[in-house]
Amino acid sequence: MKITFIQGPSENLAIEYFSRILMKEGYKVSLIVDYQLFDSVNLKNNFLKNLFDIKDILVDQVIKSKPDLVGFSIFTSEYQWALDFASRIKKRNSRIPIIFGGIHPTSVPELVIKQKAVDMVCVGEGEQALLELTKSIDSNKKNYNIPNLWFKKDGKIIKNEIRPLLQNLDDIPFPYKDIFYVKAPPFLRSYYLIMATRGCPYQCTYCANHVKFKVYAGKGKYVRMRSVANVMKELNWAKKRYPQIKMVSLPDDILPLNKEWMREFIGRYKKEINLPFLCYAHPRNIDLEMATLLKEGGCFWLNMGLQTASEKNRIKLLHRVESNDEIRAAAKNCHKVGLKFSLDHIFGIPYEGKKEYVEGLKLYNELRPSSMNVFWLIYFPKTEIIELGEKAGYINEDIENKINEGKVSNCAVFKVSGNDEDISRTKEGEFKNFALLYTLLPVISQKVMDLIIKRKWYDKIKNISNIFFILAKIISRLSVKQIYLYTSEIKRISWFIYSVLKTKWSYRNARVL
Ligand code: B12
Predict the structure, then answer these.
(1) 342 FRET partner, CA 20 to 30 A, in 14, 154, 283, 300?
(2) Cβ(175) – ligand 1 distance below 6 Å
């Protein structure tokens, strides 16, 4: 019995967890990576995309390896790519069963299951469901009653119940990292990706989290944490297994959820791992003790989302709970202990405009983050903010359908090129000047920024070309010694180009022979 996962260029934890679970049962697991060169959110070019496209070769590899099941784990931004890939597989062999799982199918299962190329959909957590499915395929007695899975049978759709949430995260075996880490050369694996939690206690209207929260209503405690001992066991193993690792990435929605947990974790992390790490937090969690713990533990980059400077809008439109004073206190604590922090801001929130963006300049200049991440609002399927967008006239039925199909661009404020449907275009002029100033704010002195605000110089910045944004980003990363982010991206793309060309070349030679 063989299961093949198909994935884009980023590492995927769900695939790593599933691989370990399936391998433990004696099943074979393989991974096909489509590097999607020049087809990403920030780097899109149709000519180069077609030049480096190896989907047909990859599909050929899938077909020849004769999998008994093919799985895709997808975000909304990857849905159209996954559908295209799955359709190509089905064209070559319609009998290979294909399952889609991940946040996108969890959000809109009824749309995904309708697709010709998709046989099954996983709604919510997949560990037990996928194992039960694999066992049923292996035993040749197909079970259509597996909780969390939707099937197609005799022209009908079978929707099974959601099973209770996994409560003890320590019961999940460690992810099988080799499936991603061994394929890439060590210089591309300089950080280790690990998550310590599942779920988020907040219900922000723009975040996919509250969609999952609704799916899981009544199915057990939603916010769960691994034990410190379990996380440390994985990290200690990882440090030995991948000695090239130079930092640890903990992209949990909010890592410092529990102070007791953090005290124990940081104490052991410092002694046993002692590598710089990055994590995300909510301003409410960053009191002086937490800031000190993070700094002492080696956190080199703390990221916090504020999204708007308007306290009223933050609460009313985004359902975020923190006040501006709480944010000020968090920033002050970070400065006090010398902890570098970045802030996220979202442009394009319904009903926001110049007034709020000026407020933003003032607040961020007061907080003085080490760096600023600016985004254009992405409407995720089934999120509450879609309703606001409709009321404000940004979204109509047609656009909502496109959002659900993953056809609306998932863009950052600026991108190198791209031609996806992009609903931000219409309002771009209104905020590009602010986006540029926000990005540069950490490297402009507080006094100069005060002057810019006082004299309203933001009104004078017009028709900004993307090249200025790119330069601004580079300058701001340089200032916090994070230029390695770009150098590692260049290494990554170079490796992808090399791998694609090698695949193309060996495929051509094999055909000639
Ligand atoms: C780690 C992470 C990343 C990493 C790794 C991404 C990756 N390919 O895995 C990085 C930093 C690269 C990343 C980038 C982005 N991310 Co991100 N990311 C996350 C994060 C924090 C954790 C995801 C994770 O690994 N969870 C652990 C795994 C084990 O759990 P899981 O993903 O929930 O999967 C479970 C089920 O869904 C199911 N399942 C999943 N896949 C499959 C497949 C099969 C076959 C089956 C049966 C079941 C199944 O089983 C799993 C285990 O129970 C989530 C937020 C969150 N807390 O979920 C955001 C999140 C997934 N990201 C998001 C976004 C928007 C992005 C970006 C587009 C941001 C941007 N503007 O650039 C990019 C896009 C990257 C891309 N490839 O397109 C959104 C997606 C929303 C949506 N509707 O699509 C999320 C939900 C954040 C949010 N709060 O809204 N991200």
Answers:
(1) 14
(2) no
